[in-house]
Every structure is written in C-alpha cells, then in structure tokens.
Amino acid sequence: MPCPFLKETRVKYCQSASVRKMIPLASSGCADEKCASPDHASCTVYRAQNGAAEAGPVCPYLQESLMQYCGAAPVAKFVPYSESLLSRCGNNSHRYCELYLGLARPQEAPEEVDGLPVPGWLDYSRNHMWLDLTDDGVCHVGIDAFLARALGKVDRISYVGSKGARRPMAVVTTGNCDLQILFPNAMMVTGCNLYLRADPARLTADPFVGGWLFEGTPLPETTESLLGAATAPGWMAQEVRRANEFLQQEVVSAHAGAVGALAADGGMFAEGLAQHLDREQLLGFFEEFFAPDISRTVKREP
Ligand code: SF4
Question: For residues 61 and 45, what is the distance between their CA atoms, to the nearest angstrom?
Fold first, then answer.
C-alpha cells in the first residue's frame, strides 16, 4: 500500500536546459507561455541547439511527464513514477518514514502484557526483537518493549556491518556498557535508521515505530523460529515472570538495598533497569535474556 501523502501530477520541462526545472501543468499558465507557442523560436536554449529538431507551433524540446511527489514535504521534489514505487513511498515501508510519522499516527492500540505493548502485527525473536514483514516484500526490525524497558536511557547507537545478506547488528551504549543487539536471522539489509544516531532516546521511547533499527528484504530464513500473534503474548508474560525471578535471585539476594530499584509496581522490573544495575549484573541480565542464543554483550573498560 503506498503512502497516503504520495501524490502524482503531470509536469512539463525543457529537455535541453542544463538544469531541469519541473513545472506542474496545473500551476502553469499555458496560453501565453513561450515554450508552447511559436515564440519559442526566440528562446536562447532553443537557438543554442542550432535547429537540431524540427520547428513547429510548440517547442520540440518541451516535454511532459507523469511524476510523483511527497505531499508532506515542505518542498515538493518530483520523482518519476517508477522510482517512487521502488522507494518506501510506494509500499508499506512508508509507515517508518519520518515525514509520515510526523503527520500520521497510524495503527490500532496494541495488546498489552503486564503493561508492555505486544503489537499483534509483528513477529518476535526470543532475544526480544521484532520483525515487521509486509505483503510487498519489505521488512523492518527493531527491539520490543521488554528490551526497551530494560535499557531505559540509551547514550549512543552504532550500526555494525554494511548492506547485504547478514544478521543485522547494532551496538547500544548505556552507561559504561556496550551491548550488542543482534537479530537472530539473516535478511538482505538495505538500510538502518540513521535518525537514531542523532536521537538514540527514540529507540526505547518509541521502539515499534520511530525507533526501528533495520530495513531490508526477507531471505528464506528471516522468519525462522519467530513467535507470532498467537504465541507472543504468552511468551512475553513468561519472560516478565522469569525476569523478576532472575533479578530476585541474582541481584536482590546479593544486594538487599537493590529491591526498590528493581521491583516496580505490579511485579514488573523497574524501567531503565540498566541504570540500576552495576556492570556485572547488567551483563548477566543481558546474557540471560538477550544473548543466550543470539546477542552477546561486550564489556568496556572504564
Ligand atoms: S516521503 Fe514519506 S511521507 Fe512523503 S510520500 Fe514518501 S513515505 Fe510518504
């Protein structure tokens, strides 16, 4: 489905001009313009062609074409119809476009598990990442609300690796720890959310939309072992319980004073857990929930 802000119009332009200026037909005054009348013979650009094209009542270099443009952008940039179909404007990827998100806030409210949103239109990996695979063959990857809550404040995001077929990976810095966030299955990576490098807080504040990490196209193995709408809510409830048990055993029992910092209302671990744990505890928590089969943590020296 194309973006609702994607518009189309017919434009005219001079094929011989050094800078191609597109003029929408709807906004041009046709009757008296030079290009569409015998007056084109006096045009310097026309005369510079030295009669290469046959003269007529309309300039032979005047062209018309069907173009598309973004109705949400402050300045319209025209692109040929075929190009917009290849970009995110012409398919469901428009849901991750910054301009689109600035004007529209789509999609129904997601189901929640213990206060954590678990959108039913996504698939989930067991290390708390999501995959959005749409009918038009484009996919996006990000982190789920469990991981976002555990991370809390993020200081920096770096992307590892280039485009191509691979398991997409980012390094998230919080406090004095660098944490590797790795999607478990390979995909054909075509891009990363570079806005997050300037505004890393968005990764955890808006993890399912503006905080997306990677985009690309699926490979046969991209959806392997992921949890869908039928199983993800139950799995998430188990993960919340398991997290609380883990924290009670591994952290609170060792540091009695940490109880208030880790146990928030309703039995859910505290938001920004990473800021409440020391480095060893944080690495242990990530090893248990985000690393075992897939992601790993890297310890930085202070
Ligand atoms: S640039 Fe963004 S808002 Fe504009 S048409 Fe494309 S997807 Fe839609």
Answer: 9
- Determine whether the shortest distance from the Cβ of 95 to ligand 1 is under 6 A: no
Question: For a substitution probing ligand 1, which of 8, 88, 138, 209 has the most ligand atoms within 8 Å of its CB?
Answer: 88
Q: What are φ and ψ of residue 260, in 5° steps?
A: -65, -35
How far, in Å, is the centroid of ligand 1 from the Cα of 87? 9
pLDDT in tens, 79-125: 877 665 557 888 888 888 888 888 886 666 788 999 999 999 999 99
As a whole number of Å, the CA-based R_g of the chain is 26
Contacts of residue 192, Cβ cutoff 8 Å, sequence gap at least 6: 159, 168, 170, 213, 214, 215
Give the three-class secondary structure for 39. helix
Could you report the per-residue pLDDT of 122-138, keeping only the tens digit for each? 999 999 999 999 888 89
Q: Which of 171, 159, 165, 291 is nearest to 214 (CA)?
A: 159
What is the 6 CA–ligand 1 centroid distance (Å)?
Answer: 6
Q: Where are the domains of the chain?
A: 6-101, 113-302
DSSP secondary-structure letter at 186? -
Atom of ligand 1 lying closest to residue 4 CA: 8
For a pocket test of ligand 1, which of 77, 89, 92, 101 has the largest count of ligand atoms closer than 8 A to its C-beta? 89
Nearest CA to ligand 1 atom 1: 70
Assign a CATH topology to domain 113-302.
Answer: OB fold (Dihydrolipoamide Acetyltransferase, E2P) (2.40.50)
Q: Is the pTM of this model over 0.90?
A: no
